[in-house]
């Protein structure tokens, strides 16, 4: 255990005077279990010009010490200082331990509010002007990261870069196309889709005008499930969106379904969203009530659990609207020829589906 070192009255008085700005550099040493004034220097030029000229000659390669160096900057308490602990490698271990244990005492005696930076050095390059500047630079930079934190940072950077290359499309988007692609949504079509999202209409039929490179509204007449087969043309491609109203296990549900009669565009759609169900039929007559119900709520054939899961607390089993807003994609084969190489049709399909996915599932 180290003895409590005493600050000599002379040193205490000198420190009080030095805080006023009359001194540039103070050297404090330990002698006979006392903290004493080793040396001091008064300012001659600016702090950076005086730094190496004053400080380096006071460093003893075999004896530790404390150094207080005054900067030209000030805070609310007065001038700001650098507190330097000098502990060379060749100094005795006992002295190193003694100076390390007394460091907080010296800082408290001088006044910690005046100290802007603290340095610790075992060689001149640690405490010289260049070493001080490196220390300040490291303090202003980010803290060092562990390998796990570095890996997490790389993942986040990769995700941000990936998001930058995507085009955001939503109800409020001013541009209704992907960057570099044609087929913008016609204003009437965009308004109809907004009405569908608000459940003000229950059916929309869209078409592609390849010559004008636009997606246009055909009609949004009220439609029941039994009317769907008659809505599907036999000789031309269409996009159909239908609000499927039905009951399931005692709950009333409204599921948004999409019917696309372009079988060749399935791969393009797969990149935009994951549908709740995917199938191919030969005729719109297959769009019956039972057919849609089975696709939205497929029968489960998995083995039952050995024990029943406990039910949630009362009030927590309310209707989950987000879960029941199922997006159903029905691909209808029709009597028309679709060329997979037709890039314009593929681009329009991708543009439309991305827009509608954000609109309906928001």
From TrEMBL:
Domain ADF-H: 3-137
GO process terms (BP): actin filament depolymerization; barbed-end actin filament capping; positive regulation of neuron projection development; regulation of lamellipodium assembly
CDD domains: ADF_Twf-N_like
Record's keyword terms, sorted: Actin-binding, Cytoplasm, Cytoskeleton, Repeat
GO MF, any single term: actin filament binding
Cell compartments where the protein resides: Cytoplasm, Cytoskeleton; Cytoplasm, Perinuclear region
GO cellular component entries: actin filament; myofibril; perinuclear region of cytoplasm
Principal subcellular localisation of the protein: cytoplasm
Similarity comment: family membership: Belongs to the actin-binding proteins ADF family. Twinfilin subfamily.
Protein name: Twinfilin actin binding protein 2
Organism: Salarias fasciatus
